[in-house]
Structures are given as structure tokens and as C-alpha cells.
Amino acid sequence: MAEKEEVIRFGVSFPAPLLERFDGYIEAQGYTNRSEAIRDMARRSILDATKMQDDEHVAGTIVMVYDHHVSELPLVLMELQHDHHDAIVSTMHVHLNHDQCLEVIVVRGKLSHLRRLKQQIQVQKGVIYAELSVTYADAGSGDSGGHHHHHR
């Protein structure tokens, strides 16, 4: 069992209208207190991919929406994924409607490599949306397919 982290209290000042909006937001999100909402916001801010270094080892997803009727696009996207097979852990493909597909690609590797893959996807004609979302990963965890933690 992991050791419990020390919690440090500090004060935060908000203008009244902002606090009122914040309280409405955290209630709508299901938070039971302001502290947990602020902790989650801090975690997300720290994990913002734009603030991470290119050589950091990360795990995350590339989410894309594309028009599968655009000539050769499905084949081009599949070829891109094969070219980056070492960074791809898994994919999920969903048919949104008659024309559009959504794919979620679970990725792991150097941030610079994953950014390059996302960019290569994003610039394809017919790709409507492409977004990379990442979190830190342990570079020493071995191959991307193995589990190295214990489930209880």
C-alpha cells in the first residue's frame, strides 16, 4: 500500500463572481468540495502537453474524426499507424454516421514522436479533428504491451 501523501493547506482568493461560477461548475461536475476540484485542475495544467519536454516518455491517446469517403484516406491513416506501430498500443474505431469515423489510438513513447504522428494525421485531407492527450509514463517500464503493476 502506498504511503499517504502529506496535505498542505493554503488560502486562495477569488473575486465573488468568479467563485460563484466556480462553485456552479464544480457542483455540475460532481465534486463534493473545492479542494478536489482545484487539485484536478492543477493536475491537468501540469500534464498539459504543451508544457512537457519533447524527450519525455508519455502515454496517452490520439483522437481523430475523419470522413471515410475521402479518397484513399482510410488507407493512408492505416499506413501511418503501421509506420508508427512501435508507439501504438491499441486502437478503437467507431462509425459516427454514414460519412464520419472516430478513432481512438492509445499511444506510448517519446512525446516528440507522438506529436509528429498526430501532426501527420491532422494534415491529411478529410481529417476533421485530431487531438493528442498525454500523461507521464515511466520510460523504464519495458515494452508497451506488458503490465508491470499488480492488481488487487
Report on this structure.
The chain is built from four helices and four strands. The protein is of the alpha+beta class and 152 residues long. Strand 2 (88-95) and strand 3 form a beta hairpin. 14% of the residues are buried. Residues 141-152 have low confidence and may be disordered.
Task: Report strand order across the widest sheet.
Answer: 2-3-1-4
User: What portion of residues belong to β-strands?
Assistant: 25-35%
Total of DSSP H or I helical runs spanning 4+ residues: 4
Question: What portion of residues is helical?
Answer: 25-40%
Instruction: Determine Rg (CA atoms, Å).
Output: 20 Å
What is the terminal-to-terminal distance?
Answer: 10 Å
Structural class: alpha+beta
Poorly predicted regions: 141-152
Give a short account of the largest sheet. Answer: 4 strands, antiparallel
- SSE string, helix = H, strand = E? HHEHEEHE
For the residues shown, what is the average pLDDT?
85
- What global shape is seen? extended
Search tags:
alpha+beta; four-stranded antiparallel sheet; 4 strands; 26% strand
Task: List the SSEs and their pairings.
Elements: H1 16-29, H2 34-46, E1 57-67, H3 73-83, E2 88-95, E3 100-110, H4 111-122, E4 127-136
Antiparallel strand pairs: 1-3, 1-4, 2-3
Quick structural overview:
This protein has 152 residues and is α+β, with helices and mostly antiparallel strands.
